[in-house]
Amino acid sequence: MKKILITGGAGFIGCHLSRHLLDTYGDVELVLVDNLQRGRMDDDFKKLLEDKRIIFLNLDLTDPASYARIGADYDHVYHLAAINGTKLFYEMPQEVLRINALSLIYMLEWFRKHSAKGKFCFTSSNEAYASALSAFGKLPIPTPEKVPLVIDDPYNARWSYASTKLVGELFVIHYAKAYNFRALIVRPHNFYGPRAGYHGHVIPDFSERIAAKVDPFPIYGADETRTFCYISDAVRAMRMLMDSPKTDGQPIETVHIGDFHEITMRGLAEKLFEITGWKPKTLDIKTAPPGSVKRRLADVSKLQLLTGWKPEVPLDEGLKRTYDWYLVNPEKK
Ligand SMILES: NC(=O)c1ccc[n+]([C@@H]2O[C@H](COP(=O)([O-])OP(=O)(O)OC[C@H]3O[C@@H](n4cnc5c(N)ncnc54)[C@H](O)[C@@H]3O)[C@@H](O)[C@H]2O)c1
């Protein structure tokens, strides 16, 4: 039987990853830790917790006393807990720094002492190199893992989160080496799907506007391109990387997870109009927000080389599932 810990288990990725691990492994004990700062005790999460293979612990990982409750000797640990959401980076950068840094350091200390035969997964972010663009003017496209990690302006609160991911990667790399445990760093790129939160993500934003029949329909940066990775594909990639013996060695691997089909914001809106059967009479094309990138594309060839992963859920299908979920789960205001 596998014993797995997921921190941030009530969040977007945590909840979908839990479902995937239960379905894939069958014989598994899953411990989910979350303080419900962002993750919610909603119907989806309550339904997940009905599974007898899950233990949920409502703990704050910035409190050292929490760790005695987590137990020991896990096969895999997915450390997802973090303060996430661009609005919060601006509103309380000092808390983003404190919570993300402390929870990672305490986790690593706990792991090396109580679970070091297992394997540790840290979710970093492409934010860790996002400001390379303003610092150096360009990034290679597609962007490989091995680009410089950069904070171009420590006074800009936006980079509070990015800096915890940047330093977090160093912590994981050097703890794994010093204490000789297996570890992995993943950088998620635009995961989407049901339960992804309500603000600052283009797909929930478009879905909300379509449901409200907003016309003229605003599109910011209509010609900018992005890729979107459906959440079931994303968590499958995480699990495949953790299962692969190819990611057991030193130095540890840092791996992008994302889709490679690019689409413009206008194309995305049009796809959603088609899926939902509603189309505005007028598009209100607005300039992109300041600092927005014209094209963002992660190089995911390393993920494919290590695991043979391919995305399975086409954008149309993923968008439909996501839209349907948001229709029956509107934001509670
Ligand atoms: N979703 C994405 O596309 C994406 C992109 C890049 C990086 N990531 C990273 O992946 C991880 C998971 O992302 P997500 O989208 O599921 O975010 P999320 O905000 O939905 O989940 C994070 C969870 O951590 C919990 N948490 C926060 N502080 C805690 C604390 N002190 N103790 C215990 N739990 C705490 C929150 O309540 C939340 O449920 C995060 O580390 C995030 O930075 C996600």
TrEMBL record:
Organism taxonomic ancestry: Bacteria, Candidatus Giovannoniibacteriota
One Pfam family per UniProt: GDP_Man_Dehyd
TM helices/strands, residue ranges: none
InterPro entries the UniProt entry points to: NAD(P)-bd_dom, NAD(P)-bd_dom_sf
Name under which the protein is recorded: NAD(P)-binding domain-containing protein
PROSITE patterns: PROKAR_LIPOPROTEIN (PS51257)
Span of domain NAD(P)-binding: 5-322
